[in-house]
């Protein structure tokens, strides 16, 4: 039986290895795809983020909120944020905070928008993370969620997210937009960009992609 401490160390090592490999392959970690995901794919426009305080969970080292220059505050939270400095994050025009999503170092109702792009399945404790998201969102604030659903657990993605995950935020949050897409090939977002809705009548067991926008009541 693998202990929690060993599991966390293995997870950390897998995450860092992935990003170091991406840095070696790409030279500079690009961030051009984030705006399209957090706007068009989620059924939003850039103006949605005007003058808002935005928190991106599990942000990684690419500068996930660099594009949101119209926001009042841009914060990326990641357990490995301190390690990401070696990958160039200090040059990004956003704040990086080193912390886990299960224990966010922010006051209640601190943010107008919380975003989670391919990160909800990375957390260690999904219930605690959901509780924290609800806590830091202001009334009328929004959660913008993009997550792979139904994949087998891995060291870095230990959570298997189900299609009904949005209901786990109720009653504090209500879903205002939700779309289910077939997973792409090498790029898991290709199906969404092609508009290939997930066919729930197809009995094949396979992962998909969920895009959701939820509002705190």
Strand order across the largest sheet = 3-2-1-4-5-7-6
**Tally of helical segments:** 4
Secondary-structure-based class equals alpha/beta
CATH superfamily: Vaccinia Virus protein VP39
Termini distance? 42 Å
Mean pLDDT: 96
When the domains are counted, the total is: 1
Structure description:
- With 217 residues, the protein is α/β, with parallel strands linked by helices.
- Helix content is 21%, strand content 25%.
- It has helices at 4-26, 34-41, 126-136, 190-193; strands at residues 53-57, 73-78, 95-98, 111-117, 137-149, 173-182, 208-216.
- The chain has a seven-stranded mixed beta sheet with strand order 3-2-1-4-5-7-6.
- Helix 3 links the parallel strand 4 and strand 5 (137-149).
- The longest helix has 23 residues, at 4-26.
In short:
The protein has 217 residues and is an alpha/beta fold. The protein is 21% helix and 25% strand.
Layout of SSEs?
Elements: H1 4-26, H2 34-41, E1 53-57, E2 73-78, E3 95-98, E4 111-117, H3 126-136, E5 137-149, E6 173-182, H4 190-193, E7 208-216
Parallel strand pairs: 1-2, 1-4, 2-3, 4-5
Antiparallel strand pairs: 5-7, 6-7
Characteristics:
alpha/beta; 217 residues; 7-stranded mixed β-sheet; 7 strands; 25% strand; Rossmann fold
